[in-house]
Write a structure and sequence with these properties.
72% of the residues lie in helices and 0% in strands. By secondary structure, the protein is an all-alpha fold. It has one domain.
């Protein structure tokens, strides 16, 4: 009987975890859609993508004069370069945006909880 109870608790915990995961995924998708990403290479995005795509060998960007200037965002450029070399598929950048939105949503949701824990720990 005790073994059945343990198995039942594990099953309930799995269900709770699955529900919470689906809840986070659902709200993350809605949050990402609400804060829509501009089309790639629009506005000033071209400046940020330029160095990374030029280093990855995209088209003839390596010959562009601006691509040969000092890179103002080397970490972002390296991420773009690695991404494009590994998977030359433009929608990957939209997926990155979605991941960042999920992180932002989790921070917004968890921040009040974390602040409550900090106050409790200080007391």
């Amino acid at each position: 009987m005790e073994e059945e109870t343990i198995i039942s608790l594990d099953h309930n915990q799995n269900q709770v975890f699955l529900k919470r995961t689906l809840y986070v995924v659902f709200w993350s998708i809605l949050f990402t859609l609400a804060y829509a990403q501009s089309p790639l290479f629009s506005s000033n995005q071209n400046q940020y993508f330029l160095h990374g795509l030029a280093n990855a060998g995209f088209g003839q960007l390596s010959e562009d004069w601006l691509a040969n200037t000092l890179d103002p965002t080397p970490v972002f450029s390296k991420l773009i370069e690695i991404s494009w070399r590994a998977l030359p598929w433009q929608p990957i950048f939209y997926i990155y945006f979605g991941i960042l939105e999920i992180v932002l949503l989790l921070i917004c949701v968890l921040e009040p909880l974390l602040m409550t824990l900090v106050v409790v720990v200080k007391e």
